[in-house]
């Protein structure tokens, strides 16, 4: 089974370069885009934003490819709680703890926040305060996928940054815990207009990155989950000798740092790390989708890109909503003055595009 999947992925690799072109062309036309976002949002105001981010991330990942996983997960957490509006980046304030302090966020990487701040500063230096933190997070997540070996795809842009962050309870109520079964996972995603294909595709994000023991040791202690492959379980027990061991393990044992379809091959071999992962193969509603991605990497890549574009547009702020933060960790203090400059910028942009049409 594993070898036929491997053969299938070799075949799909051969077609990868040509298919990627098709995918990104197709997405521009077929991926639905919400009102207020655009494929060419910064064409006039910051045409280099995407190349600045990609070039810097190439350097970051050359030193530590693990950071790609941290950035991908950051975008997911941002979007699921209050929508993709950068609230996950806000530091807790006097009014209460931020999304960062809520339990599921304790394992977001500190470096991911630092990388986003650094990218924002670089983009600001080039273009001024025009690109939102939430757009930077969305672009960085896409680049993390692409630079780890996954698909390249266009990201709709024009998100604005939120002014508030979720409570700890709000964060818990919107994310999915690793001990969730497929019914729980599908219900929660359905409430965000994501269907079962999106659920299986997006879970494929677990083809890169790490997990702390405490996120899955409920499957090892006190009783071992019978659906888990025995050898896999024994190895996890070595890495995590107690339920609360502080260690980490790779999520995809076959190719931990490569964005590929091996996550689904893991599931078919009962080597999924979380219940939420493994149950996608146990549950009849999602099993065939898992299989189809395990044997056809191209199919997975195309669907992953579509599902990410969908997730990346959840409850976005656009137009004059929210703000463009000057520091991703805090709200702007000069909101009033800044509104004037937003209006100026928009007038300027309209001027430019009128020019363009001549
Ligand atoms: C919807 C169900 C999901 C659940 C239950 C879930 C749960 C988790 C958990 C528990 C961790 C490990 C945290 C730790 O202990 O360090 C993790 C890591 C990760 N998740 Fe998810 N996740 C889900 C969806 C997603 C999605 C949609 C993506 C992106 C498309 C994603 C990307 C990642 C990545 C890349 C990591 C590794 C982070 C790192 O290495 O720092 N996850 N996830
Ligand atoms: C952004 O705000 C945080 C929190 O107030 C602060 O610690 C940090 O130095 C600021 N970063 C920049 C680049 O000003
Ligand atoms: C309370 C706590 O530890 N919060 C942390 C949540 O995660 C971010 C990013 O890693 C940290 O900066 C916070 O300190």
TrEMBL record:
Which species is this UniProt entry from?
Xanthoceras sorbifolium
Which superkingdom is the protein from? Eukaryota
Q: What is this protein called?
A: Peroxidase
Keywords, in A-Z order: Calcium, Disulfide bond, Heme, Hydrogen peroxide, Iron, Metal-binding, Oxidoreductase, Peroxidase, Secreted, Signal
Q: Describe its function.
A: Removal of H(2)O(2), oxidation of toxic reductants, biosynthesis and degradation of lignin, suberization, auxin catabolism, response to environmental stresses such as wounding, pathogen attack and oxidative stress. These functions might be dependent on each isozyme/isoform in each plant tissue.
Q: According to its UniProt record, which reaction does this protein catalyse?
A: 2 a phenolic donor + H2O2 = 2 a phenolic radical donor + 2 H2O
Span of domain Plant heme peroxidase family profile: 36-332
* Database matches in InterPro entries: Haem_peroxidase (IPR002016), Haem_peroxidase_sf (IPR010255), Peroxidase_pln (IPR000823), Peroxidases_AS (IPR019794), Peroxidases_heam-ligand_BS (IPR019793), Secretory_peroxidase (IPR033905)
Q: Which cofactor does it need?
A: Ca(2+); heme b
- The answer to whether UniProt assigns keyword Transport to this entry is no
User: Where does it localize?
Assistant: Secreted
